[in-house]
Amino acid sequence: MIRMRDLRKDFSVRVPAGRLRREKRLVSAVDGVSLTIEPGEMVGYIGPNGAGKSTTLKMLTGVLSPTSGEVSVFGLTPVPQRTRLALRIGVVFGQRSQLWWDLPLRESFRLLRHVYQVPPAEHEQRLRRCREMLDLDAFLDTPVRQLSLGQRMRGEITAALLHGPKVLFLDEPTIGLDVVSKQAVRSFLAELGATGAVTVVLTTHDLADIERLCDRLVVIDHGRVVHDGTIEALHARYGSRRSLVVDLDSPLPAGFVLPGTSVAGVEADGHRVTFALDETSAAAAVAGLVAVASVRDLSVVEPDIEDVVARLYRAG
Ligand SMILES: Nc1ncnc2c1ncn2[C@@H]1O[C@H](COP(=O)(O)OP(=O)(O)OP(=O)(O)O)[C@@H](O)[C@H]1O
């Protein structure tokens, strides 16, 4: 289990004060975060730039000491017990590689087996799974410095898992990746999450990662948690609704009301209407509509997570 209690991290920064002077100022990067993450959970940790996501991950992984508050990861306090912690966690931080730049990927994996003293059979079994699922074979013998970003990220994720950690921390695992690599990484993480064997905490700016992967979404802003729950709870809280988009042979009569909905948009001279499904199902709305109008085509649009998260950031 991962526990944070009133966790804080302040940085002292020098900011310009007048033309020549600079003065010290405290930045509260993490400002009283309390969270408990149960084993096997897959949690998306999101927030605007500078919200405090990386700083939180750094405290969880023992890279930074908290200014105050408590943090424990599977019973260990990260900074003082960093060596023991390293055996239980896997970390993928985009900017920092755990691979040997000049060696082929395969050699990095071999060296990591020695670093973590993983029995050969266990190592082989884990590596085989990653090779299959992350499609590594085509570039296993390529030096790491020659890998594309997507190939390297797949290598980094493998490297983070070869010692069989209980927790995987990922900072922006899909940033800058091409579509194929993104899909490979997401499918792999989805499968990993489904086993429940590894607890996963990931930060991302790509909300499709969250939609695809995370049951739980924690939103942080200015170092504080502003939402903790499912994506559905976020939609409910911000009143996002599904909508029904219909293409009509002719515009609806003036003053037309479809029970349980409100008109969210009218386009193409009234031939396309979007109804927000406020208090009714898509099926009931469609039935009500085809009874009075000639419907050429229709689609049901799910609420957009980008939209609701943008509203949340603005509110924050
Ligand atoms: N080493 C540091 N020294 C001074 N200030 C820092 C340091 N690291 C982070 N900060 C500040 O702390 C705040 C939180 O930064 P952090 O990197 O945790 O945000 P983030 O949510 O990960 O942002 P991003 O999405 O841009 O990566 C920012 O205001 C940042 O400028």
UniProtKB/TrEMBL annotation:
GO terms for cellular component: plasma membrane. Its main location: membrane. One of its GO terms (biological process) is response to antibiotic. PROSITE patterns: ABC_TRANSPORTER_2. GO terms for molecular function: ATP binding; ATP hydrolysis activity. It comes from the Bacteria. Keywords: Antibiotic resistance, ATP-binding, Nucleotide-binding, Transport. InterPro entries: AAA+_ATPase (IPR003593), ABC_transporter-like_ATP-bd (IPR003439), ABC_transporter_ATP-binding (IPR050763), P-loop_NTPase (IPR027417). It holds the Pfam family ABC_tran. Residues 2-247 form the ABC transporter domain. Gene3D superfamilies: P-loop containing nucleotide triphosphate hydrolases. It is found in: Cell membrane. This is ABC transporter ATP-binding protein.
